Protein 1
Amino acid sequence: MYINSDLMTFRQHPFEELIDEFIYFSASWTYRALIELLSTREMCIPNYKCDAQNYPVAVIGGPNSDIALHMATNLCLYKIPQLTYGSSSSVMNSNFQAVFSHWMFPNEAHQYMGILQLLLHFKWIWVGVISQNDDHAERFVQALFPMLSQKGICFDFIAKFPQRTFSNAVTGMVAEGIETFRTVMESTVNSLIVHGEIQSMMVLRMLFHLSKFEGIPVKTKVWIMTAQMDFTSLPFQRSLDIDFMHGTLSFALPSKEVKGFQKFLRIRNPTLNQEDGFIKVFWQEAFQCSIPSSRVDHTGGKICTGEEKLETLPGSFFEMSMTGHSYSVYNAVYAVAHALQAMHSSQFKHKTKVNGGTWKLLIKQPWKLQHLLRSVTFNNSAGEIVSFDPNGELLSGLDLINWVTFPNQSFLRVKVGKINPQAPLDNVLTIHEDSILWPTRFNQVRPLSICNDHCHSGYLRTKKEGKPFCCYDCLPCPEGKISVQKDMDNCFQCAGDHYPNNDRNVCIPKVITFLSFEETLGISLATFALSFSFITVLVLWIFIKHKDTPIVKANNRSLTYTLLISLLLSFLCALPFIGQPEKLSCFLRQTAFGIIFTVAVSSVLAKTIIVVLAFMATKPGSSMRKWVGRRLAYSIVLSSFLVQSTICTVWLSTSPPFPDLDMYSVTEEIILECNEGSTMMFYVVLGFMGFLAIVSFLVAFLARKLPDSFNEAKFITFSMLVFCSVWLSFVPTYLSTRGKYMVVVEIFSILASSAGLLGCIFSPKCYILVLRPQLNKRELLIKKN
């Protein structure tokens, strides 16, 4: 479409110029039209001027981006301004071409940001892209891909429409299109970005139609279409379903209904303007009739009457409302008209009238209009301001349209949002979600478009090998960690005084616990300790009562009393282990236990040695008699006591035990315990007691076959066997136990070993003293070998 020097007559019938627009998509047809435009009328000879001539001062073309490129290739040589109602400025091969080009389309960066904001708003992070097979589509993908990836959106596929080709290769084009459609339908994405232009809708409808014959199951998708697309149909497509468009979201150039446009459409017919070849062709295709006077041979059939009404055509074939592309053409015409008006009214025309007037100068120098076009600003008849930025792109936003289709092939474009380039980047797009009608399959619930289900709280996501980063597996959080949100990449540790719940999505405060006198276990252990203490006191009382009897005298009364008192204290020293640990109790309980048990074991050792020495001393001429006596027994007990006391003193002076909180041994509890300070010193104390016990056991074991009169060694052997068994099993059990049960293990070991000594050594003697006093006689205890 061109504007010549007769443009001033355009104002009388502006819509006629809009209807006269015709687009050929191929480069060859575009170049041919340009050559004819620049040549003498009815003569296609470039640069040949004679007779009646065309004098284009500006050219309007589109809507495809390659049309603008083909126009610029030729028209820039003549410095003729061009207005393109497609996009974008990036298609220009040089800055020189861009200087003479204007776009009735905003900067494409606004549309990219709008697409990004749309996907983020609906949380669609798993998308597909289908685009044309050309350089413009490549630039679209290259610009959009990093923007979306940086925001956590990834692509399942990037497919292309079949490339336009010659008729002899149509089979390959169809096969290519079917494969593309199969890829789209087999994908798990629910939202699909479609970047196309005016002819892409025809191709898309064709692919849906062919899928029925290819057996491709059609899945409902939410199509997100760019503003360059518009609804167009080939004549044979008028009866094809458009259900797939229901719920589609598309960006569109803002358009308003122009006053008088509906009236203009209603009065159009092929007889109104006999020279309008386009409307004749359109009329025959639209109403499936023929006009006898047309160049097409009349082969019979329905004759066009000229009374047919455009409003009776299905909306998928012809829209009665002004579309975005038509609105752009309308504004482009008036932009040129306003630029010409500005040139006509400038002072410059007065200086050139002597040379033939303004129009003659403009014909020779059309580039003069370029500056005025770039700076033109006007209000169109719909009340909107039209102006361009310094790059020649329209200063405008974009509308977000929701397509609503009906069974009768009609549809509505419902505005549900808008791109405002002046807004902050994060708020470029405003959406009225309540106004959106989604595809039927989604039951009016916002569709999800994710590679897999969300990882709920309590899980973390891990990347799937060979898949985009939006695809992941969900694994439970590791032990002791939680996640509180969906799709977390890492779980985090609860604070030391908290622990995860079973679902691992909440941290629960730990309960402070210790072995107390108020719980069943603590009461039971305390009861046992006191009971054994009472038994020990009873045994001691029995021995004191019968202190002058032979059996008590024969067992060394001093050592017996010392052993019983130390066993009594051993039972009682279990009590400080029960109850809330405090500084004093922690400071004393292990050392007191170590020293008291050392006295008990050393007393047993002393008794064992005395028994052995007593047997050896009875042999005639034995020199062992001088060793048998209280002095040796006291020396053994006292030396053992001093060694253990020294060890405990070093322990308490260097690294004493202290109250401590153990937050990690038990998951759900904070253990209030006594920290041993130096674990090594604790095991040294146990080691020394173990050494005494083993020595005592070995000595008693070697003396087990002494005559019956001296069978004390057998009782000691059994008692030390019990003692050593208890404490040997204590070490691994203690190390494998956590929390307050470590204290329980130690208390049990104290009570069991002490009870073993008490029972094995003193029960036979108490039996004789209490129940069989007739056996407690000296003559019965002394037997000959």
Protein 2
Amino acid sequence: MRRCAKFGPLTALATGLAIIAANTIAPSAATAQPDAASSRLPEIFPAPVSMTLGARSFALGEAVELVAAPGTEAGTLTLLRQILTSAGVETITTAKTPSARPDVTQILVGLASAPQIRATLGRSGTVVDDHAEGYTIAIVPAGRAGKVTLAGHDGDGLFHAVQTFRQLVQRQRLPALVVQDHPAMPIRGTIEGFYGKPWSMAERSKHLDFLATVKANTYVYSPKDDPFARDRWREAYPAATLQSLAALVATARRNHVDFVYAVSPGPSVCFSDPADAQALERKFAALRTIGVHSFYVALDDIEYKKWNCARDQTAFGASGAEAAGVAQARLLNAVQAHLIATDPASRPLIMVPTEYYDAKETPYKAALRKTLDPRVVVQWTGTDVVPPAISIPDARTATKAFGRKTLLWDNYPVNDYAQTTGRLLLAPYARREAGLSGELTGILSNPMNQEAPSRVAVTGVAAFAWNDTGYDAERTLHFAARELAGGDARAADALLTFFDTQHMAPTFGSQPWQEQAPRLKATLDAVREAIASGDQTARHKAIATLTTQADALTNAPDAIRAGVVDPSFAQQARPWLDAMQLWGRALQLTAAGLDAAESGNTAASRYFTDAGTLAAQAAAVQSIPGATRFDGPIKIADGVLDRFVKDAPSLIAQ
């Protein structure tokens, strides 16, 4: 996209838990008593469709018995073993059928269609989730341990069940619990479609690992500067590049993520030339040899009212929007037909149209609607290239315009356009209406040039696409912080402080769709109010609160650098963390100046002067050269923090 010019049933489940509890071996007195953990519903992200809590819990223990039903994928079992080991399990014994040992937790894993799984869940009265990618988890205290059943409707669902189990075992005890879950939208993930420095293959691999943890299932490879996908799209990839892509495809497969290969032929394609259609087919055939079965043709950011070849003039008439829509549809229809004929495993072709934003009726959209094969998936960015909000009526209008439900290309948190200069976009994913799952085929987020910081917003995108009606933006943001911090509470708090300084979400216009630093602004506004109209006690309290806030800003960068699980987050956010620390020190001096002024101390002016010097240094910190499309000064809570530091000397007469 160009961003430079314009800048059920709960009763049955509860009954099932009660049946199992009634038929288990009587636990010891120490384990029979209800505990605090058993009365608390765990938080799982994305939010499951249904969770039913029982009254007891148990510790996982140092040894477990693992029973895998026939047909369970080896990769899913490997992941489960890794999760158990990370949770402190020292001994994992495999068995074909569960034993009768009351002192060892038994984990049964497999497809819901497997007789063992079906029988176990049936005995407990647990209803199986039978949606695509759905899963069911039943956790039942039994004796001095427990029984855990992880059942997937399909292989993807079972993998998702294991990812949910990963979150559950982070608790000290597992509660009696039944989870039924499945995604609201069939397509969920990211499209690497930004301008500027692309991700490295290592960053892409990490991103695929991350997508698995949030139950995303799609990654579109569409870097703008891959010459063999855009300017030189007719040419074959060098062997070394194809080998690197093959490794990436394997990583995606291991993570149950659909790797979609995108080509952008628009700047030079001749729509009516069979040779160009064959060139596309050859390109896709080469990718098919490394395991790609999903393809994408990008026709965004091109001149579509002028033909690239005289042949198209003959075939489609005078150039123009309507003729372009017909020409594009004819080429895409041929590609779609060829994919089906040559690859039974192929998924529907995806395309992004030249008119990819808004849903106003136009000759171009009408031509696509009437001519394009209904199997082809169409992407749409919302009411604008960077929309401030997306509603159900917006999506319905797009469905009408394109003749099918669209796949949302959400340009958040992408930071490759001028209004994002100096920013990381770390506000929660918000202002997308609950219920959009009924009007969209899915959501793909266009992330930032910085892969690790992108995970904050993408966690929200994936959670919304999984369960839009159960999505909570703020709670999901907190989850993203905990995940980045690996459970380190100090680092997670520091990350949330940092996120607040990067809360601004710009549009192409002058008004952002998410405001800057709302938490910090509330604190600073309260200080202003207390100084202006509060009594002496209120003023002292407000200045003390300001000092605490300044310390938090100053200390957060070091806590983040020491606490994040993936060091690449701190590396990619380095100038922002450096600037934040300087701003924190400037605010510390500002607080000291206000305290001195309140006490009539003549040192106040020196504190304010030193604060201004540090603020100037902070404002001069530059982004990493070449890391984003537009280099420039780093923004930290701009319009909030800088304004307060500037105004502070005038709040109390010196």
